[in-house]
Amino acid sequence: MVRSLAERLRAHEQQKARLAEQEAKLKDAGRKARTRRLIEAGGLIEKAGLLDLDANALYGALLSLRGGADDKSQIEKWSALGGRTFAREARLRDDGKHAVVLTFPAPLARDVTTTLRQAGFRFSKVLQHWAGLARLEDAEQLARAHGGVARRVTAMAPALPVPATARQDAAE
Fold it and tell me: Is 90 helix (H, G, I), strand (E, B) or coil?
C-alpha cells in the first residue's frame, strides 16, 4: 500500500511530537533529580553544622574541599567518616526502641491514625494491626489512650529443616 505525501508528512509530524514529548520528560526528570540533589546537599550542610556560616565562608569552605574531590583515597576517607556518623546517629535515634505492634478493638478515627503515623507506626491491612519501632512505654501509653493494646515483637529464629537422620531417631 502506497501512502500519500500528506499521510507521510502527518506521520512525520506525529513522530516529531512524540520525540519532543520524550525530550521534555527527560529534561523534567533531570531537573527534578538536580533539585533533589541540591536539597540533599543543603540538608547535609545543615547536618554538618555549617548552615550558620555566612555565604562567603561557606563557599570558601566548600572550595577548600574541591581539591580533595579528585583524590580517590580522600573520597574513601570522607565516605567512611560519613557512613560511621550516619550509623552512630541512627543507633542513638533508635536506642531503647523495639518492634511494637498495636491492636485496637475497632476502627480508629482519622485523627488517631494520623497520630499513630506521626509516631512512626504503619497499618498492616493483612494483619489488621499497627506496627513500628518505638519505646515500649510510649507505645503502651498511646495504645491505652485509644483503647488498644501494645506488645513488643520478639524475633523468632527461622525454622531450620530437620535432617532425615534426626527424624528417624525421633521416631524410634
Answer: helix
C-alpha cell at 5: 505525501
For residues 13 and 18, give the distance between their C-alpha atoms in angstroms, rounded to a whole number: 9
The DSSP secondary-structure symbol of 69 reads: G
Q: With contact defined as beta carbons under 8 Å apart, do 101 and 149 qualify?
A: no
Find, among 133, 121, 131, the residue nearest to 95 by Cα.
133
- For residue 90 the three cell numbers come to 541512627
> What CATH number does the domain containing 145 carry?
3.30.70
**Is 86 inside any structural domain?**
no
Please give the residue range of the domain that contains residue 147: 96-152
CA distances from 71 to 8, 76, 78 (A): 55, 9, 11
pLDDT tens profile 6-39: 999 999 999 999 999 999 999 999 999 999 999 9
* Helix extents (H) in 95-123: 110-118
